[in-house]
Design brief:
- With about 300 residues, the protein is an alpha/beta fold.
- It folds into two domains: about 10-175, NAD(P)-binding Rossmann-like Domain (Rossmann fold); about 180-295, Orthogonal Bundle (N-(1-d-carboxylethyl)-l-norvaline Dehydrogenase, domain 2).
- It is about 50% helix and about 15% strand.
- Strands 3-2-1-4-5-6 form a six-stranded parallel β-sheet. Strands 7-8-9 form a three-stranded mixed β-sheet.
- α9 packs across α11 (about 225-235) and α9 packs across α12 (about 245-260).
- The chain starts with 11 loop residues before the first strand and ends with a helix.
Amino acid sequence: MTRTYEPTPSLQVAFLGMGVMGAPMAGHLARAGHQVTVYNRTAAKAQAWVAEYGGAWAATPREAAAGADLVFACVGNDDDLRSVVLGAEGAFAGMKVGALFVDHTTASAEVARELHAQARTQGLDFIDAPVSGGQAGAVNGQLTVMCGGDEASIERARPAAMAFSRAFTRIGPAGAGQLAKMVNQICIAGLVQGLSEAIHFGQSSGIDMKLVLDVIGKGAAQSWQMDNRGKTMVDDQFDFGFAVDWMRKDLGLVLTEGRRNGASLPVTALVDQFYADVQKMGGGRWDTSSLIRRLRRKP
């Protein structure tokens, strides 16, 4: 699809993490007219991004962040995030006073609060801003972003971030964006397991499941997962989308937070174990809709 960008003042920005999400997100920032410097632990990915989009690449997060108005990041987990933010070569060491760090990593609420507090001691701002929409949302510039932090900081980030977003919403103080993303993943886990069982039941009964999905997709059973993954599940196709390994990481965050806040999450815990089964089947990089593969195994 062709993305149309709202006119915004050109800013100097950095983007840390050129993975399947970060690279297209940074690409939208460049196409929207911002001056983008990128960093990736594997330099070849950063160099490939520059070859496609222009801009510049840096050898360290500190160098990438130097002089930037906004520093975006989308990396793997809490430890990866700390590694690009803290330390002598981390982004915080290179950012100018008053600059804003926007973290799109799905990480813990704890690390978001930690980095928010650390940023303040250095005259910087930090918001946690995990995303939903998967790789397709990043490529199409249609991500939903859940933000935690100060309202003024979130409003500062919004004009640039809308280059790759369909919504950029403040949920609450530092850490609230990550908590909202956990809610999102709880919903997805339950939906995908239910959809897997429904399709498996229908196919075991010998009915035309693509037709059934067309019909029930117009009623109360409709969901994003049904619309976008139902028919590929029928066809046993899982070579796209959000990987099982990533979902297990996210559900680990959910279950840890649930133990901390006292929330009972029996279905989420069960589906997490079902995803562990998929990993044992060699499906760590399959799309999360591959839960149905467990049900298709012969006893």
